[in-house]
């Protein structure tokens, strides 16, 4: 593994690991500083990865790899996602007064999933990151679980995005049926009409994740 590949891996693994540990502990005082420091380091690593443009892949299942890559678009969005996460956590450090480890831990795991989504180069990587991002967003929306309205809003978001997420599974099936394989860069080579089915499935999933019509409620 090259240094650039190690940096790319760290961009995803560092916030995920620290977030998981925080979410499972009761370190009320340390949660915010640790989360902010982790987000700051992740932002620096994301900027370094954007400059180096590395790619990384490991075997996942037969004919498919779990692949991450920093292409031109990811080079723009990767530092942006990390930087926004840092700003959110800095703001939250002075605003969240209860259950700090759980909140900051969930935020870091959510950020790791978003960073993995940005750099995903294969459908298995995209699906894994996509689902983790959906689960943590539900947990964050319903963070104040004693408030019934917030829990209801979280459940609505979860069901809505889960419905739209079926498009991504449809896209994966269409990619295999069309003989394109699971690499995102190979999807345009899928046979018709499977290529169009895959494109439609990805579009539906994206509309749901971004709360666009018809999922905007």
Description:
It is a single chain. The protein has a two-stranded antiparallel ribbon with strand order 1-2. About 70% of the residues lie in helices and about 5% in strands. α2 (about 30-50) runs antiparallel to α3, α3 runs antiparallel to α4 (about 100-120) and α6 (about 150-175) packs antiparallel against α7 (about 195-210). It folds into two domains: about 1-140, no CATH class; about 140-215, no CATH class. The termini are far apart. The chain is built from seven helices and two strands; from the N terminus they run ααββααααα. The protein is mainly alpha-helical.
In short, what is this structure?
This protein is mostly helical and 217 residues long. It is 71% helix and 6% strand. The chain has 2 domains: 1-140, no CATH class; 142-217, no CATH class.
Strand and helix layout:
Layout: H1 3-23, H2 28-52, E1 55-61, E2 64-69, H3 72-93, H4 100-119, H5 123-141, H6 148-177, H7 194-209
Antiparallel strand pairs: 1-2
Helix pairs in contact: 1-2, 1-4, 2-3, 2-4, 3-4, 4-5, 5-6, 6-7
User: What share of residues are in beta strands?
Assistant: 5-15%
Global Rg: 18 Å
Distance between the termini: 45 Å
Which residues sit in consecutive blocks of at least 5 with pLDDT less than 50?
none
Fraction of residues in helix: over 70%
Strand order of the largest sheet: 1-2
Global mean pLDDT: 91
The rough form would be described as: globular
DSSP helical segment count: 7
| Biggest beta sheet attributes | 2 strands, antiparallel
Got a strand count?
A: 2
Domain count: 2
Order of helices and strands: HHEEHHHHH
Briefly note the structural class of the backbone: mainly alpha
